[in-house]
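Weekly structure sync, notes
Attendees: PL, DS, HV (note-taker this week)

Item 1: Phosphoserine phosphatase
DS walked through the input record. Source organism listed as Blastomonas marina. Sequence as pasted into the shared doc:
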Amino acid sequence: MLIARLIAEPATLEASLEGALSALAACDMPVANAHMLEHCGEVLELELPHGEAADLRRVLDAQFGPCDLLVSDRAIAVPRLFVSDMDSTMIGQECIDELADFAGLKDKVAAITERAMQGELDFEAALRERVALLEGLSEDAIGQCLAERIHPTPGARALVATLAQKGCRSVLVTGGFHDFADRVAEQLGFDRVVGNRLATRDGRLTGGLLGAISDSSTKARTLAEEAAALGEGGITLAMGDGANDAPMLREASYGIAFRAKPAARDAADGWIESRDLTAMLRLLGIPEREWSAGKGG
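Item 1 (cont.): predicted structure, written out as tokens:
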């Protein structure tokens, strides 16, 4: 069995659905049932008795264009664990790029960040190269950057708070830095943070890092360890946007690519293309009347 839930443009929904039904039938993947999800009126749910999830995602992507989508091989339920990337996912910025702006190096650092997130560069090497460029920057720039540049993605607080209300533990795991992630996690309501640590001396960045690197393997390992604590059958949700999120997305029950690079999208069970993370709550079938605003509204 396959279940697909999607949120698409209302004006073209009917025509897109007709095209999808025809395309799926041609692939020997007939749709047994198609209906709008109860209490989540804008969510279309499709039920298929058989087929490959990758083929279903491909057809729906082609027929509906940019949409929010989740495909599962079993009935969709609220997860007990949520593990998410931070930069360009839970927040709308890349922290290291914004911090580099205080050193007059944003364009140079951002170009390296983009290539790393596309999977074109080794993550650790790219991280160390970017951090080295920040040598001598005052620690005060971190606080200023947080206050002036770093903002939660719309719907982030509601997503984490509502999942918590439903009994879901949330972990923020990032290839970025505790200096930012600890504050973001506190603002959004995450239970745990995993990330990298910037080295400082006499109030300035040294251009180095402390301890082991938090990278793609760290993200996947964190998800696996947290999932093991749930016991067998615990449903997990992972979300991210870059190539270093791909292993974590594959590991999760529901891997969601948020406005993602191709490497993350290819690894995912679905994606969110809209700019509001409450789309995830809709895809999980949680009606708006049950949403929590979270810390700070």
